[in-house]
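stage 2 :: seqdesign
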């Protein structure tokens, strides 16, 4: 830990992966940059898609080691409804065109252009 981060008690090192409790479906990598915004310490995160943003330190957790689904439920690590919708859509649409059309028909999904 560099001396500046120790001054504000930032528990992450540059390059560590963290999760925002308010958006657990979007992990980010701590860049080592931070700034003070009133009483809050805002740390910069780099996202896999290429974007960066500052998030409050108080809402960040280090990414825990992989565990079972039961352990994740006990820790309270859930995604948002949008994450579940995205996953269901992905599962429905992966595969050949014939399988996609069959799945949409079986689930009675209407597609309008």
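stage 2 :: out
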């Amino acid at each position: 830990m560099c001396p500046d981060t120790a001054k504000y008690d930032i528990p992450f090192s540059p390059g560590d992966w963290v999760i925002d409790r308010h958006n657990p479906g979007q992990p980010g990598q701590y860049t080592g940059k931070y700034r003070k915004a009133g009483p809050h310490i805002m740390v910069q995160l780099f996202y896999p898609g290429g974007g960066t943003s500052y998030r409050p330190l108080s809402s960040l957790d280090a990414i825990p080691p992989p565990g079972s689904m039961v352990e994740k439920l006990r820790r309270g690590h859930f995604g948002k409804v949008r994450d579940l919708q995205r996953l269901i859509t992905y599962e429905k649409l992966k595969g050949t065109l014939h399988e996609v059309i069959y799945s949409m028909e079986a689930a009675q999904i209407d597609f309008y252009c």
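stage 3 :: structure notes
- Residues 34 and 43 are 4 Å apart (CA to CA).
- Residues 3-64 form a domain with the SH3 type barrels. fold (CATH 2.30.30).
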